[in-house]
């Protein structure tokens, strides 16, 4: 009988795997367990509540424009960002007009222009839960319907457009 069980993280509200014998924990399924064996684990129902293994999480992309008051005013494109927050918002509004609600255009512009390393994935940040992103960003992502794009959001990182993808 497996020593693994599924528990719910108190801090993130997400399921994780816990080995009662070794006290090891992991977000990912333990190697060597088949899908059927995982389904038999104590607490396995936590894995399928809500949206499968991403219960309570959202998936989002963003297009970030940093400014001189950003937490880290540099990026893959510019080593020293000197624009004002107002200039950053103006730039982002220009992108917003080009995107015009299109997720494909969003990804294209994020790839070319986002000041985040996620630019190489079209701005995709993957799945995340509450408490993992800055509050204004998190609120925007959770507040959007899948496929919708936010208005300009300001965080400590800069100004963003957020596309909820999951």
From TrEMBL:
<feature type="domain" description="WW">
    <location>
        <begin position="1"/>
        <end position="32"/>
    </location>
</feature>
<feature type="domain" description="PpiC">
    <location>
        <begin position="55"/>
        <end position="166"/>
    </location>
</feature>
<protein>
    <recommendedName>
        <fullName>Peptidyl-prolyl cis-trans isomerase</fullName>
        <ecNumber>5.2.1.8</ecNumber>
    </recommendedName>
</protein>
<dbReference type="Pfam" id="PF00397">
    <property type="entry name" value="WW"/>
</dbReference>
<keyword id="KW-0413">Isomerase</keyword>
<dbReference type="InterPro" id="IPR001202">
    <property type="entry name" value="WW_dom"/>
</dbReference>
<dbReference type="Pfam" id="PF00639">
    <property type="entry name" value="Rotamase"/>
</dbReference>
<dbReference type="GO" id="GO:0005634">
    <property type="term" value="C:nucleus"/>
</dbReference>
<dbReference type="GO" id="GO:0060261">
    <property type="term" value="P:positive regulation of transcription initiation by RNA polymerase II"/>
</dbReference>
<dbReference type="GO" id="GO:0003755">
    <property type="term" value="F:peptidyl-prolyl cis-trans isomerase activity"/>
</dbReference>
<dbReference type="GO" id="GO:0005829">
    <property type="term" value="C:cytosol"/>
</dbReference>
<dbReference type="InterPro" id="IPR051370">
    <property type="entry name" value="PPIase_Pin1"/>
</dbReference>
<dbReference type="InterPro" id="IPR046357">
    <property type="entry name" value="PPIase_dom_sf"/>
</dbReference>
<dbReference type="InterPro" id="IPR000297">
    <property type="entry name" value="PPIase_PpiC"/>
</dbReference>
<keyword id="KW-0697">Rotamase</keyword>
<dbReference type="InterPro" id="IPR036020">
    <property type="entry name" value="WW_dom_sf"/>
</dbReference>
<dbReference type="InterPro" id="IPR023058">
    <property type="entry name" value="PPIase_PpiC_CS"/>
</dbReference>
